[in-house]
């Protein structure tokens, strides 16, 4: 691992406050930052499929300046344990919602920011937490369902019996194909995060992501809605127009930001721009 990449991840991890919450036999791992902002409304971060808290590696430091930040490893991902089977979007959302009651208490309002697959659970969580959720911000979530066509599906299966040296170029291909737009954005930090997360991921999320559950759950949302996408996000193939129209139809007041020359993992690839947009959303709310 690149020393600089290792140092950044190690520093963020060591500075975090670790909390664990057990819901129906599923133990969720939470990391929190921004202790000095403990009296401010907390920000809850949900990562993408096959990911972990480190999907937010380039955003946490900016957010913790002004907010109390909580990032969870979703069930079956990272350092959290597996959910009871069979699992559905609804059962996963219920676990996370109950865990939120544990780590936040039942009366603290919060803002929810969700990336990719995390977004598929966010609308359901918002309805479960309707008495206290303040806003939902979706980043790179295919609201109308993950397409079965397009470049995001042209991934290489990485055999488990290969050496790490043999696996690395395959992971790099998948990272560039799915997560980022500019090849140079798949740097050592991005690759390190991707390889570590894939080694830990047990949750199979694509089946849920190909459904309309997110689109349905955003109807009658009990809070404000904000959407943020990379212009070149391949998971939205062939384009953003239909998604924006759907959002405008059901939430005319929703904000809808598109970041140029950025792909699916837009909060990593264009972190400065995304951090500015998030700050504006959160301070306005």
Which overall shape is indicated by the principal axes computed on the Cα atoms? globular
- Can you give the helix content as a percent range? 25-40%
Mean pLDDT: 95
Distance between the termini: 39 Å
Number of strands: 8
CATH superfamily: Alpha/Beta hydrolase fold, catalytic domain
What CATH calls the topology is: Rossmann fold
Just give the CATH class: Alpha Beta
Total domain count:
1
Could you spell the SSE succession in H and E letters? HEEEHEHEHEHHHHEHEHH
- Strand percentage lies at 15-25%
Main sheet properties: 8 strands, mixed
Gyration radius over CA = 18 Å
Q: In which order are the strands of the major sheet placed? A: 1-2-4-3-5-6-7-8
Q: Name the CATH architecture.
A: 3-Layer(aba) Sandwich
What is the count of DSSP helices, taking H or I runs of 4+ residues? 11
The parts where pLDDT drops under 50 for at least 5 residues are none
In terms of structural class, how would the helical and strand content be classed? alpha/beta
